[in-house]
Please model this.
Amino acid sequence: MYILVLNCGSSSVKYSLFEMKNQQCLVKGIVECIGLPEAYFHHRVAGEEEKQEPCKAENHQEAIKLILDNLTNQDYGVIKNTSEIAAVGHRVVHGGEKFSQPVAITAEVIDDIRECFSLAPLHNPPNYQGIEAVNKLLPGVLQVAVFDTAFHQTIPPAAYIYGLPYAIYQKYNIRRYGFHGSSHQYVATRAAEILNRPLTELRLITCHLGNGSSITAIAGGKSVDTSMGFTPLEGLVMGTRCGDIDPAIIPHILRYEHISPDALYDLLNKKSGVLGISGISNDMRALLKAESSGNSRAKLAIDVFCYRIKKYIGSYLAVLNGAEAIVFTAGIGENSPTVRERSCRDMENLGIVLDKEKNLNTIAREGIISHENSPIKVLVIPTNEELLIASETYKILTNKN
Model:
């Protein structure tokens, strides 16, 4: 049984095809620069070299048509016909307060996704376009929406309500939603397997560190707090996002820089974070290299990034009244021993003791990197949001049948 997983961005579509009997990813790829002359696709079959070619994709429907053609291509495809695709799972960024779990996509669900456009104007519209494209290209095939926000719907009101007039929440649904839910859910489940403990018995702090970063406090398998808020801008300092700032900074910048609200939004989302601090790059690898050459602002950007991680870990230890494990995942979390070490430095009195050798030797692979005597275990777990989406889609497919 084959399940196609789609992640539709504003100008790209990432895709993976899973054979669910063995939960094996057969192929993954991406169509990028949709609507531009430089559009191209990457297509990698498991165990083979990646295929890269320029392509023509004016919109999401054309991009998904290209993906389906790639999957069934006589030379490098992995299935004979698109009729072999039993279901399509979509990553949908925002489900508002309505969705606390994945759902089969119906006309009503599509309307609800459209209602969330105002909450996620950059993300939900392309997610919607992907769903509509599949409706046309694979009519009758089950589609499932897996929401980034759904895992965090268990957060209690004390953690998600902002200190604004309550009428603002009631009128505009302004509250903490949280994101990266599929990633946090996946690594929490995998951590329980590694620790050989029931997930329901564990208190976990999961750190999804990439160009976009978030940290989640998980008790008994449920999210109880998370660093991202109404939008993915809140929380940690990120690649290009500012993270937590004093709200009074916003009118101050508007007043003295004489820029529009849209320009300020662009500054906070695309020109801030470690890019803005360093003036060099939003890529942690480039910053670490610059720091090793004596660049003080690169060092400052890394220090700020790690300090904010450490601060959130400490606050979530308070929220959870301790923890059995801390998990690092995503591009930086999986691949940067330096960031992991600095984020956990001088926390021995809180029960966090890294094993330096294990930390240095665990890059892009799974493992425990804490000292054997550390009261709190520290793990590195590569995230697999695509597999989680495929698994959730499979559950709905098999229950429906």
Remarks:
- The domain at 2-147 is CATH 3.30.420.40 (Nucleotidyltransferase; domain 5).
- The CA atoms of residues 3 and 87 lie 5 Å apart.
- The mean pLDDT is 94.
